[in-house]
Design goal:
Strand content: 5-15%
Number of helices: 7
Strand order of the largest sheet: 1-4-3-2-6-5-7
Structural class: alpha/beta
Radius of gyration: 60 Å
Number of domains: 4
Length: about 325
């Protein structure tokens, strides 16, 4: 089937018109291809809010401002249309608050979700709230402090005037001297603190070295924990063995043996018994010496005259 030239031109014109309408609405902040809902909020002052400004729920953008116009009742209120693209349930008692998103004053609308069971439907009007600007917040915080500072300065001025009228020249001079001494004391304290700081810096390296040594010792204990456990276990076993052994009986036996040995030595020293006589009487020594000398003479005679003592016979 052949399509005529006029049909093609008409189709192109229709497609172009559709794209033109869609682009125009998109630039206005309306997306015709996205399913959305529109809610409304009424403000007495929109405070710099404009079309296409974002709409947030818990910090996430869910839509944008699409409409802004005066209330037909001409009471000065401004009706703002909020188009929400996300299919997120919004309770009917939710609040739409206009707030600043940065220091440059860029505005946005954030939806504070309520707790109602009924959900807001397309075209419903939500509660509205206008957040304080940064300047107003600063003024609200600084204002009371400024007033208190002014009152404090007024009180100080009154006190100084009263002092000036009450104190004599000599008293003023005395106060000046006290202030001078106070400055000198503060200067000395500063010098002391500097000396202390220098001392701390000088000793810091030594303290660090001590800490390093302590860390090394603890590391060695940790690495040799198993060996230390075995040594302690051996000591424990040795102590148990010593407790179970009859140390008292052993010491008693040793003491008795030493006493017996002492008695034997006393008898030997007194010349009692064979050993005592042998050690204390030199007669045996002399007899042994004489016998040794006679034996030497006999052996010498045998060597010189063997025939006297040994006879050889072949037949």
């Amino acid at each position: 089937m052949k399509i005529s030239k006029e049909t093609k031109i008409g189709a192109i014109f229709i497609i172009g018109a559709i794209l033109l309408i869609w682009g125009y609405n998109f630039l206005k902040g309306q997306d015709l291809l996205t399913r959305s809902r529109t809610f409304y909020a009424v403000y007495h002052n929109v405070s710099g809010l404009g079309k296409a400004n974002p709409v947030y729920i818990n910090g996430m953008q869910v839509g944008q401002v699409t409409q802004m116009y005066f209330d037909p009742a001409l009471n000065g209120n401004i009706i703002v249309g909020l188009t929400v693209d996300k299919d997120f349930p919004i309770p009917k008692n939710s609040t739409a608050e206009i707030l600043s998103t940065d220091l440059m004053g860029t505005k946005a609308v954030t939806l504070h979700l309520g707790n109602a069971e009924n959900l807001a439907q397309n075209g419903d009007t939500l509660q509205s709230k206008l957040a304080a600007t940064l300047t107003e917040q600063v003024e609200e915080t600084i204002g009371p402090l400024k007033k208190r500072a002014e009152n404090l300065l007024t009180s100080i001025d009154e006190i100084l005037v009263s002092l000036n009228a009450t104190l004599s020249a000599e008293q003023v001079k005395s106060i000046k001297g006290s202030i001078s001494h106070l400055n000198s004391s503060l200067s000395n304290a500063d010098t002391i603190m500097q000396n202390i700081s220098g001392f701390v810096i000088d000793e810091k390296s030594k303290a660090q070295e001590i800490l390093n040594n302590l860390e090394s010792i603890t590391t060695n204990f940790k690495n040799n924990n198993e060996s230390l456990t075995k040594i302690i276990s051996n000591f424990h076993s040795l102590s148990d063995t010593l407790v179970q052994s009859n140390i008292a009986g052993t010491l008693h036996s040793v003491n008795k043996s030493m006493m017996d040995f002492s008695l034997i030595m006393n008898k030997i020293n007194k010349g009692e018994g064979s050993v005592g006589l042998l050690l204390n009487n030199d007669t045996l020594y002399l007899e042994l010496e004489k016998s040794s000398r006679d034996l030497n003479l006999l052996l010498e005679d045998i060597r010189l005259h063997p025939k006297r003592y040994v006879k050889f016979s072949l037949f």
